[in-house]
Write a structure and sequence with these properties.
Blueprint (H helix, E strand, L loop, with lengths): L3 H29 L11 H23 L4 H18 L3 H27 L4 H15 L4 H19 L7 H16 L1
Length: 184
């Protein structure tokens, strides 16, 4: 088990990285003329859609986590080896805070700035291109990057249908998915 100082180091490092990602998203948004904060509107329907969208994704995660086959076994071993010890030493409220920060910062960048900016060349192009970048940002293995890109497309679709432009639905899905995955 990680000692308290190691857990704090992990949490501080993660918070600085994800917080830096959020600041980068705001700066990039300013540079390309997109306000990534504007589409975050506190609509109950967006929270409901975000929560509902989490469960099929998490059920798929559970199935592949419990019974990994082929290259999924390697992904599980890598993630458990790297993230297992620090995550298992965290308290539930630290995992909630980390999940919220990850969901917020990554959605701010990928769905709040990159997807709308790249959608200037077509909605489908923006959806696919931003999530290729999302997959590459999650490159653990080639398969993991592909899985992340596909999950990113789901999150990108949430931004448009049925959330109608509010970033809150994909933020909720992303954060809740991470929290449940962290618990595993």
């Amino acid at each position: 088990m990680f000692e308290l100082s190691e857990r704090r180091t992990f949490l501080v490092t993660a918070a600085l990285f994800e917080g830096g990602l959020a600041l980068f998203a705001v700066a990039l948004g300013w540079f390309v003329g997109i306000d990534p904060i504007a589409p975050i509107s506190p609509e109950p329907a967006a929270v409901a859609w975000g929560g509902a969208a989490t469960f099929p994704l998490f059920l798929l995660f559970m199935a592949t986590f419990r019974r990994p086959i082929g290259p999924l076994r390697r992904i599980k071993e890598l993630l458990l080896g790297v993230l297992g010890p620090p995550l298992s030493s965290c308290r539930w409220h630290e995992l909630v805070a980390l999940s919220l920060l990850v969901g917020f910062s990554e959605e701010l960048l990928f769905r709040g700035v990159l997807q709308p900016w790249l959608s200037r060349w077509g909605l489908a192009f923006g959806l696919v291109a931003s999530n290729i970048l999302f997959g590459l940002a999650h490159f653990v293995t080639a398969l993991y990057a592909l899985i992340a890109a596909v999950l990113g497309i789901v999150l990108g679709c949430l931004l448009h249908w049925p959330a109608e432009g509010t970033l809150l639905a994909p933020i909720v899905t992303h954060a809740l998915y991470y929290y449940l995955a962290f618990l595993m």
